[in-house]
Each structure stands twice: as C-alpha cells, then as structure tokens.
Amino acid sequence: MDLGPYLVLATLEGAVTAAVLALTAVGLSLVFGVMRVVNIAHGEFFMLGAVLAWWVATSVGGHPALGFGAALIAAPLIVGALAMAADMTILKRLDYDPERTIVATIGLLYIIQQLTLMGYGPEARPVEAPFNTRLAIPWVEHGPEGWQMIWPWGLGTTTYKLAVIGAAVLILCAVWAVMARSRLGLVMRATQADREMAMAFGIPVERVYAITFGLGAGLAALAAVLIVPIQQAHYLMGADPLLLSFIVVIIGGLGSLPGTVLAAVLIGLSDGIISVFFSPTLAKIIATLLVALVLVFRPQGLFGKRAT
Amino acid sequence: MPMPPFRPPIWGAAMLRLDRIGAGYGRAQVLHEVSLEVAPGEILCLLGRNGAGKTTLMRAIMGLLPLMAGAVRLGDVTLSDLPPHDVPRAGVGYVPQGRRLFSGLSVAQNLDIGLMAGGQGMAMREDVLDLFPRLRDRLGQAAQTLSGGEQQMLATARALCLNPQVLLLDEPTEGLQPSMIAAIREVITTMRARGVAVLLVEQRLDAVLSVADRVAFLEDGKNGPVIPAATLREVRSIAARYLGV
C-alpha cells in the first residue's frame, strides 16, 4: 500500500482523537475563561464519565444502544452535578483564588481517582458501541490500465467512529449556540469580562461559576462516554486527556473557544498521523514542544488576547 | 441633544441612607463612620482629595466591599444585608470609575445585562436610547471599540436600563471632551427630574457646581461638612480647604 492510504487512515484516527479532545478541552477552556480556575481535576471528570458510562450501560443491559444511550445522558449529568457540588463546597470557600484552587483541584484529582479505584477496581472495562459496522474506504491508484479504484486491505473505519466525529461537531455547535445566543451564555461572558461588574449588575456570580464548573466537567464526561467504546474505562485514563487538553488550551489561547477547537483539531490530527507513522510518544513530545514554542513566542496562544 | 420623552418621576421613591458605615480592604479600614443621605430627585456630590475614600464608598454601597460597621439602607430595605448581586435589583444603578464595560460584548448586550438586572424590557431600552441616541447606531458594535465618550454614555445607559431609584456615578466626566461632558450632565439632570437620587463623585469643581444640589466632603475616610451647592459657589475657600484647589 502507498503512503496515501496510510495518511487517510491516520487522518481518520486523528479526527476521532481531535473530536473527543475538542470536547474535553472546551470544557477546560470554559472553566478557565469564565472562572480563572485551572482545573487540574478535569481529566478525572473525564475518567469518571467513562467509568459511569460502563456502570450505567452494564446496569441497563439489553441492546447495547439502550445502555449506551442511557450512559450518554446519565454520565454527564451525574459528573456535572458532582462538579457543581465540588465547586460549592471547595472552590467557593477558597473565593476562587487562582493559586489555591490549583492545589485544591490537585487534591480533588486524587480523591476522585482513589475513590474510583476503591469502588470500580483497577481493571479496564469496555462499553459496547451501539453500532459498529466496518466501512472499507476506496483508494484511487494509477496502474498499467490507467486510474482505477481499489479497496486496500486495512483502509477503513467504523460507523461508530464517524458518529463520534459527527456527535462532537453537533455538541460543539450547541456549546457555541449557548455561549453566543442564549441568556446563560451572555451572563457567562459578562462574568468572564468583569466578575465585580457582573455582580454590580445583578448576576449571581457564584451560581454562574457553579454552572460553568458543572458544564465544563459535563463536557469532559460526554467526551469520555463517546470514546469509551473505543478505549475502555480505566481509573487512570484521565491523565492523557488532561495533558492534551492543557496543550490545546494553551495553544488555542486561554479562554478562547474557537482557538481551543482549532488547536484540538491540529493536535488531534497530528497525534493521529504521528502515532500511525512513528509513535504515540513522539506525538506527545512534538505537542509539548509546540506548547513551549507558543509560550515563548506567543504566550497568549494563537487566538487568545494579550492581557492588558 | 433633543429632550427625551417625558416619563413621570417616581416620586415617593426611597431615600438612600448610609448610617455610620465603615469599610476597607482586608484589615485596612478606609471609611470610618460615614453617614450620608440622598433624597429622591436630588443630586448629592461627593468631593474629596485623592485617597479620601470616595470610590471605596461607592463600592461599599454596592456591596462589593463588605461593611466593617454600620448599614446602607434604601427606604425600608437594608442593602448591606443583601448579597451583592441583589443590590442592583433593589434599585441601585452604578456607573463605575473607568467605565468597566463588559468589553467582549456588544453595545446591545451591555444594555441587555442592565435590563436583565432590573427586570426591564425593550421599552426601557428605547427610553434609555432616547437619552443616548448616538448609541442607537452602534448597538451591534463591540463595546471596546467605542470612543471614550461613547463608552461613558454606554456605562451610564447600562445603569439606567435598571430603572434605578438611586444612581451612583463615579467620575463620569473623567477624560471626556466638553461636548460629551455636557451630554452626560444633561442626562444626570434629567434623572433628577425623574425623581432618581443621584450620588455623584466628581473631581471637576465646575462640573459639580453646575448640577449638584448639595455637596458632601469626605476627608481621610471620614465625614466632612455637607453643604448646599449654592454655598460652595459663594464660599470657594471651603473647596480650597478640603480639595486643595
């Protein structure tokens, strides 16, 4: 097989990574943008989403679509509610102080991780995809008889992977619509612009913070539910999404949603392509190097605004 | 500027009372037992040197700084017992120093925030835009792209969208050209005519004398004399003593 089909395969895998990463990173970016809180526990909310998806899907039983559908609704709601509770009991008491909330969310990370280990165990468990038909992808090649369509062995994807990409696009559009068109989005953007003035104009800032923290965690959980039929649920699975989300948010620009989505596509695709042709470790090294370059030459990120 | 359509004054609106309030930052107390009253349909101008505590007083009224002592009341409502986000809902509009617009939002969205806080609808927005017709052409424009004068108009309009009983203005003419100062002054006097109690912090003595009914001095965070503005016009030595001008 030529290089071309491999590149298509790697791009498809990268697109799935990018889709899930965009959802996770947008959650992190929302929390930082509105609350100025660096949520180190974000990856654990992702992990919790995956574990809850397994638990809900297993509890519901029957056709895989039933369990998966229930998990798709229940896991983000439960994780969102837990995050709101964490906001009200921990972050609010720290008055959302940027430094102290970093330490607090590190503590939260370990609490969630160890409680999951105690309750769920160390095993990696799969959730069955609701549908998973294999799709072969054609390739056009120039042979002795001119251009002809061939079906290279191994060049294909699944309907579920395509659905993950489609679902992520839909959810991101919904997030954009909420932020740009709804009353909640207006209130969140006003709070992001000036917390004190938001209070001076009747916005219950602490309630907005709780909703934002819940929404951010819920998005991470939603991303995890989408990926868990491909990756399996495990109590240590939160580390990679956290690292990649930070990389994406820094490159895209802290608090910038369009920048975050674009950076997620860039990092997700490059991760997929470099992982297929070289190694996943090299993909992470290059992404981290990119972050270093951005921090040196454009600290506000590609789409962020320089602090005034 | 054409005169806005007449809206009946809200006579019978509540009086703003500051009762021996103390406030500050952390352990540093800036205000010490400050008492003031502003009646509906009155403009009370607060004067004092830099650092006297004028902006701190405004922030304390809004609940943005916790009180160390005393109480802030609007009629029967003790504002200082409310959470900060309920103070504007009780009828207090705030135009802060430096405007502090919601910079990522458009002009219309900034006004919407004010309307939401006061539970007001589009009729109130139209009423406010009649006072600031220049903003009507810029509704879709991002707030940070407005000129300084237009930003001050927007900051004032945003507070008026609450339909406030009390309007707090912290140096609204700072850095503005004379035509803008005149426009802002006209709006302030219109608000007085509508029965709004106005507490105005101003550095420019001429601006104060042209609109104020009474003048209150603040000295090192404590009450100075409260005198009719007419007295200050006649006895300028008072200003010299408290302001050094």
Shape of chain B: globular
- The quaternary organization reads as heterodimer
Number of domains of chain B: 1
The strand count of chain B comes to: 10
Helix content of chain B: 25-40%
Question: What's the CATH C level of chain A?
Answer: Mainly Alpha
CATH level-four homologous superfamily name of chain B: P-loop containing nucleotide triphosphate hydrolases
By helix and strand content of chain A, what is the structural category? mainly alpha
User: What can be said about the biggest beta sheet of chain B?
Assistant: 6 strands, mixed
Radius of gyration of chain A: 20 Å
Radius of gyration of chain B: 17 Å
Bin the strand percentage of chain A. 5-15%
Give the largest chain-chain interface (CB within 8 Å).
Answer: A-B, 18 and 26 residues
Tally of separate helices of chain B: 9
Descriptors:
heterodimer, A: 308 residues, mainly alpha, ABC transporter involved in vitamin B12 uptake, BtuC, two-stranded antiparallel sheet, 11 helices, globular, B: 245 residues, alpha/beta, Rossmann fold, six-stranded mixed β-sheet, four-stranded antiparallel β-sheet, 9 helices, disordered N terminus
Helices and strands in order:
The complex is a heterodimer of chains A (308) and B (245).
Chain A: H1 3-35, H2 42-60, H3 64-91, H4 98-120, E1 134-136, E2 139-143, E3 146-150, E4 156-158, H5 159-181, H6 183-193, H7 195-200, H8 205-231, H9 239-252, H10 257-277, H11 280-297
Antiparallel strand pairs in A: 1-4, 2-3
Helix pairs in contact in A: 1-5, 1-8, 1-9, 1-10, 2-3, 2-4, 2-8, 2-9, 3-8, 5-6, 5-8, 6-8, 9-10, 9-11, 10-11
Chain B: E1 16-25, E2 28-38, E3 43-47, H1 54-61, E4 67-74, E5 77-78, E6 92-95, H2 107-118, H3 122-131, H4 133-136, H5 148-160, E7 166-170, H6 178-193, E8 197-201, H7 205-211, E9 214-219, E10 222-228, H8 229-234, H9 237-243
Parallel strand pairs in B: 3-8, 3-9, 6-7, 7-8
Antiparallel strand pairs in B: 1-2, 1-4, 4-5, 9-10
Helix pairs in contact in B: 2-5
